[in-house]
Amino acid sequence: MIDINILRENPEIILNSLDQRQDKIDLEQIINLDNQKRKLIQQSDDLKNQKNIVSKKLGQADKKPISLIEEMREAGNQIKNLDLKLEKISTKLNYLLSTIPNLVSNNVPYGKNEDENEVIKSVGEIKNFDFAPKPHWELGSELNIIDFERGVSVSGSRFFILKGKGAKLQRALINWMSDFHQKEFDCEELYLPNLVNEKTVFGSGQLPKFGENMYVDSDEKLWLVPTAEVPITGMHQNEVFNIENLPINYVAHTPCYRKEKASAGKDKRGMKRVHQFEKIEIYKFVEPKKSENELIKLINQVTEICVQLKIPYRLKQLCSGDLGFSATETYDIEMWSPGSNEWLEVSSCSNCGDFQARRSNIKFRESPKTKPKFVHTLNGSGLALPRTIISIIENYQQKDGSIAIPEILIPYTGFEEIR
Q1: Pairing mode of beta strands 216-217, 222-224
Q2: What is the pTM of this model?
Q3: In-domain check, residue 332
Q4: Which residues contact 341 (CB under 8 A, 6 or more apart)?
Q5: Cβ atoms within 10 A of the Cβ of 209, count?
Q6: Distance between CA atoms of 410 and 412, rounded to whole angstroms?
Q7: Residue ranges in 189-346 assigned as alpha helix (H)
Q8: pLDDT at 64
Q9: What is the average per-residue pLDDT within 179-191?
C-alpha cells in the first residue's frame, strides 16, 4: 500500500512511478475521494461536539426545553447519515488505493517491457556438447522419470507426474536447498499453510489485482498460495518487532498454484510453465535503511546455489515496465538450458520496501519509547522447481542418453546418474 501522505502532498511522485511502469490510474479520482472523506470526518466531528454541548445543557437544565431535545435528535440523525456516506466513500477509496502499485526505486532503469531488462552479468561457461542436446521433455519420457500424458489425464493441461529417480531428484533438491539456506545463511525454516484467507492474500499484494490468476475455494474464501511469500507476509500481520530481532530470515518449501491465464499459449511443452510446482522461498523482514544491502545479500545467496550446482546463470535487472506490483526493485536469476536452448528464470529477488508491511500492518520499534515504523520486506525464490530440474537434466545429459547428478546432490539422491 502506498503512503497516503505522498498522494496528498506529492502526487507527482506517484504519477511519475506509474508512468515508468507504463500504468494508468485515475489519481485525481482518488484524491477527490480522500478530500471528501476528510470533509465528512470533520463535519461528523463538529456535529458530535455540538451534540455533546447540547447534552450538557440538557443535563444542567431543570426543565428539558423541547428545542434542545429536537436539536439533539437532529444532530444524531445528521451524524448517522454522514457516517453512512463516510463508510461508502471509505470503502471505495480503500479499494482504489489498494490498486496503486509500489513506487519504482531510483535504482531501477526505465523500460517499457521485459525486452528492455538489463543483463548485469553472466557466470559459468556454457557447455559445448559433442552431440545434439535433447530438451527435458524428450529426456524425461525416454528415461521414464516424467509422465506428461498421465499428468494431463489426471488433471488437464500444464500438469505432469514425476516418477522414480525424477521424483527423488526433486526431493533431493528441496532437502539440499532447504539445508543450504539454513546452514549457510541462518534462515529459520517454516512449514506453512497452503490455503490462506483473503486478508492474507491482500496483505502480500496479490489481491485485488491478481485474483483471476489464483485458485480459490469460494465457499470457504480460502486461496491456494501462488508462492510462500503470501503466508510468510501474513504470519506477522498486525505485529510490532523489536529492532534487536531484525533482520528476520525465513526459508520455506511449498507447492505453488497458478492459473497462468496471462501466459496462455506460452511454453506449452514440458514443465516450464505449469499450474502446480514446488518452490523454496527466502523471505526477509529488515530495517528500512538496510533493505538495499539486504537485497544484494539475497541475490548472492540465490546465485550461490547456481554455482554449487555448476550450471551457467545470468543476473538480470528488471526495468520499470516489467516490475511486479509489490516490488520496488527486482532482479531475476536465469539458468541456461541447452536442450530448450534458452535461459529459464529460476528466481526473482525483490525488495518490496514498506509496501507489503503497510498492507499487513507490520512494524518495528527502534526503542521502547519510540513510535513504531513499518519494516521493509524482501523475498526471492531459492530456487523454483521444476525449472531447476529442467536445467539439471539438460545440462547434465550424457551422450548415451543418461543424466549425471550434480556432485553436491549425490548425498541427497543416493545415486550418481539416471539411466
Answers
A1: antiparallel
A2: 0.92
A3: yes
A4: none
A5: 13
A6: 5
A7: 198-204, 229-234, 291-309
A8: 58
A9: 98
> pLDDT tier at 363 (50, 70, 90 boundaries)?
very high
Indicate the number of domains in the chain.
2
- Confidence check: pLDDT of 275 > 80: yes
Range of the domain at 42: 26-99
Domain termination residue (choose one: 99, 130, 153): 99
388, β-bridge pairs: none
Least confidently predicted of 44-53, 208-217, 296-305: 44-53
Dump pLDDT digits (tens) for 286-340.
999 999 999 999 999 999 999 999 999 999 999 999 999 999 999 999 999 999 9
- Of 99, 123, 140, which residue constitutes the final position of a domain? 99
Which residues make Cβ contacts (< 8 Å) with residue 156, sequence separation at least 6? Answer: none
Bridge partner list, 197: 222
Q: Are residues 223 and 369 in the same domain?
A: yes
Task: Tell me, yes or no, whether 104 lies in a domain.
Answer: no
For residue 404, is it within any domain? yes
* Distance from C-alpha of 275 to C-alpha of 260, rounded to nearest angstrom: 7
CA distance linking residue 254 with residue 234, whole number of Å: 15
